[in-house]
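Open question from group meeting: does this chain pack into something compact, or does most of it stay loose? Before anyone orders reagents, we agreed to write out a predicted structure and look at it together. Recording both the input and the output here so the notebook holds the full record.
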Amino acid sequence: MAIIYKIQNKLTGRVYVGHTTTTLQKRMYAHRHRLRSGKHSALQDDYDKHGWDSFEVEVIETVPDSEARQREQIWIEHYGQLSYNQWNSVDPDHKSPAEGYETRMRERLRRRGKTYNIRKADGSPPSIQDVKKQMQDRGLI
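Structure tokens returned:
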């Protein structure tokens, strides 16, 4: 079973919706590790300003693994329609994880004043591992 969860900043109201097929405790450990390392694309600014204690985590629902991405997207859209200030971008086409990662990396580079095309030559999205390797090779992460 997969867990759909929400991380909300109690001070700013911003919402992040995610899912995990491991335990929520392990997933939160991963989020906190990336935040402490300064490498969390979504939550980093609020963490740097307000700290981990400003966040609250809530389980939204538990669903079969096969439905996790679809249900996560529905909840992202739900919070977006409620006009929550959210970190997730709504993905009406339910793109692959690599495409979502590509979008986050493009945003990170844009904030740094850089551009970089990480799509394959045929225009398709690369795998997440390909993207990470390319970004690491160029010293971007």
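Observations to bring back to the group:
Confidence is low (pLDDT under 50) at residues 90-98.
DSSP finds five helices and three strands in the chain.
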